[in-house]
Each structure stands twice: as structure tokens, then as C-alpha cells.
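Subject: for your reference before the review

Hello V.,

The reviewers asked for a structural picture of the protein, and I figured it would be easier to keep everything in one thread rather than splitting it across files. Below is the amino acid sequence we used in the manuscript, unchanged from the supplementary table.
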Amino acid sequence: MVPDSEQRGFTLIEALVALAVGLVTATVFVVIITEGLQQVRSTKRIERLHANAILLSNAFSYRIKQAERISVSGLPNPILTLTFPDSSTTTIAQVGDEIQIGGVSFTDIEIAVIDFTLREMTNSVRIGFTLESEGLDEKLSSTTTIARRNRP
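And here is what came back from the structure prediction:
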């Protein structure tokens, strides 16, 4: 038998314990990273939802303020028709699960419009919409009243 002072290396038990501790540490690390990445993806989807709502509100506001005439038709699927000073027109409507302005989609591929309402008022229009992101339980609703500019 060799005395303890000359023994070098690890015993099998020590190596297995070190391996088990390493595996537990690696597993915890992977779980934490995975959950963090899922949270980042979720936050980005919510951010995209908010960005789409802002884009829509700004697009509506810009066009309605430029319009000379505003009319709402086509209930229960409302269509907002805007007539501009040069007699050109454009429409704002929900088509499927997206909002189109002048036939061009103004919503992200991963964003669905699940509600769209229009209410014509004197020199203004009240617009309401609800957006939903794919893979999220969160919905974002917005209602705003936009007045067209007074023209001389």
C-alpha cells in the first residue's frame, strides 16, 4: 500500500461528485439563460405591438388633419373615406386582420387587428382599434379622436 502523502490525482468518488456539481451548475445556467431569452422575446413582441399602435395613430392623424372631407360608411366593417383639397381620396379600413390605408397594410405581419371602430363626428373622427401579437396573451387597445384642420 502506498502512503497518502505520495498519492496523486482524484479518486473516482471525488471525480463523480465534481461532475455532478458541474452538471447541476450547467443545468441551472441553461434554465436561467432560456428564461431570460423568452422574456426578451416577449418584451420585443410587446414593444412591436406598441410601435404598431403609435404608427397607426400617427398615420391616421396625419391623413385626417390633411383631409377636407371625412365620411364613414360600410358598417359593421367601417371604411373611413378622406377627401383632400386636390380632390384625391384615400380610405382607411380593416381588411382581414390588418388595417389598410389607401390599400397599403399598416400593420406588422405578426400583429393582428381584432377590433376596428370608426365614428364620424363634426369635423373629427373617433378611431378605436385593438391589436394582438402572435404568441402573446396581451392585447393593446387604443381610442383617439382626431380633428381635421380648420380650412379657410
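For the response letter, the relevant points are probably these. The chain is about 35% helix and 35% strand. Residues 16 and 22 are 10 Å apart (CA to CA).

Happy to draft the paragraph if you're swamped.

O.
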